[in-house]
């Protein structure tokens, strides 16, 4: 007997050749039809689909996708850790990485992001806040944590694919990201905060115009779960005496500058001036 689609199921869309795995967040009724609201398992996209278009994903496929994501993150952690440990230092110094405040509209991604930052040795606070609530809480959180870097992300997507790119209401969550940026910039009177904002298919031009340094998605494509984390890591760990540009790390992002672009910004790693010989 065919299983009934329920909230929490991991599914794929038959009409899209089952190309993306989604978690069913909600099921709504519209004109006697059931519509599922979906969020990506490994990519930051929000979508909807009729129940009849969905198929519960086989367990081994779900495990495979999750394993790929975990392996990708672990390889990056090992690569960066090896790179840092292989450097030879003739002086002892205290290094302060930039403090990260990360707002994420996906609860599971919040947990994964925190674990990634911790393994990378970064100073990060990660908060699960649904996209539409982020503008409400951002100023209080900025006041409380006083970060150097703000990551505003979650899930997004075009409602009508490849149409009306300049209509903010054609994006599922971009308007909330934009409002959050504006409130963050209002708080940031010293103009020192580095902001990344967006998710899959987000309204890139409007995010940059609102005040983001880096944003997704210029080509209105999907972005990887790890892309915002890489932006945060790069800004946080590169010397503050220089500027950082998207060209400095675009090759490390899943789709380069098609997925994320931006303007140059000050780097956030600082070292004290009291160095002593080892």
Protein structure class: alpha/beta
Low-confidence stretches: 85-95, 273-278
Radius of gyration: 20 Å
Instruction: Tell me the domain tally.
Output: 2
Number of helices: 6
Number of strands: 17
Strand content: 15-25%
User: How is the CATH topology of the largest domain named?
Assistant: Rossmann fold
CATH architecture of the largest domain: 3-Layer(aba) Sandwich
> In which range does the helix fraction lie?
25-40%
Mean pLDDT: 88
Query: How would a crystallographer describe the biggest sheet?
Result: 6 strands, mixed
Shape: globular
- State the name of the first-level CATH class of the largest domain: Alpha Beta
CATH superfamily annotation of the largest domain: Response regulator
* Beginning-to-end CA distance, first to last residue: 70 Å
Strand order, largest beta sheet: 9-8-10-11-12-14
Order of helices and strands: EEEEEHEEEHEHEHEHEHEEEEE
Structure description:
The protein has about 280 residues and is of the alpha/beta class. It has 2 domains: about 1-85, SH3 type barrels (Roll); about 90-270, Rossmann fold, CATH 3.40.50.2300. It has helices at about 60-85, 105-120, 135-145, 175-185, 205-210, 225-235; strands at about 10-15, 20-30, 35-40, 45-50, 55, 90, 95, 100-105, 125-130, 150-155, 195, 215, 245, 260, 265, 270, 275. Strands 9-8-10-11-12-14 form a 6-stranded mixed sheet, sandwiched between helices. A 5-stranded antiparallel sheet has the order 4-3-2-1-5, with no helix packed on it. Strand 11 (about 195), helix 5 (about 205-210) and strand 12 (about 215) form a beta-alpha-beta unit. The protein is globular. The N and C termini lie far apart (about 70 Å). Mean pLDDT is about 90; it is low at about 85-95 and about 275-278.
């Amino acid at each position: 007997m065919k299983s009934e689609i329920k909230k929490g199921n991991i599914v794929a869309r038959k009409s899209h050749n089952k190309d993306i795995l989604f978690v069913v967040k909600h099921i709504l009724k519209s004109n006697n039809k059931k519509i599922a609201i979906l969020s990506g398992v490994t990519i930051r996209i929000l979508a909807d689909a009729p129940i009849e278009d969905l198929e519960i994903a086989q367990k081994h496929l779900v495990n495979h996708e999750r394993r790929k994501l975990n392996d990708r993150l672990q390889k990056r952690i090992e690569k960066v850790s090896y790179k840092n440990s292989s450097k030879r230092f003739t002086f002892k110094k205290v290094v302060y990485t930039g403090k990260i405040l990360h707002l994420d509209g996906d609860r599971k991604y919040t947990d994964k992001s925190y674990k990634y930052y911790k393994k990378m040795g970064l100073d990060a606070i990660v908060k699960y806040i649904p996209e539409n609530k982020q503008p409400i809480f951002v100023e209080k959180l900025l006041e409380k944590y006083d970060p150097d870097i703000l990551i505003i992300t979650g899930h997004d997507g075009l409602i009508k694919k490849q149409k009306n790119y300049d209509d903010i209401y054609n994006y599922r969550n971009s308007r909330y990201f934009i409002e959050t940026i504006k409130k963050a910039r209002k708080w940031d009177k010293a103009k020192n905060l580095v902001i990344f904002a967006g998710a899959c298919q987000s309204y890139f031009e409007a995010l940059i115009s609102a005040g983001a340094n880096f944003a997704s998605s210029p080509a209105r494509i999907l972005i990887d779960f790890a892309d915002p984390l890489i932006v945060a890591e790069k800004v946080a760990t590169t010397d503050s005496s220089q500027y950082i540009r998207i060209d400095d790390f675009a090759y490390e992002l899943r789709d380069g500058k098609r997925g994320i672009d931006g303007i140059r910004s000050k780097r956030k790693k600082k070292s004290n001036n009291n160095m002593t010989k080892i």
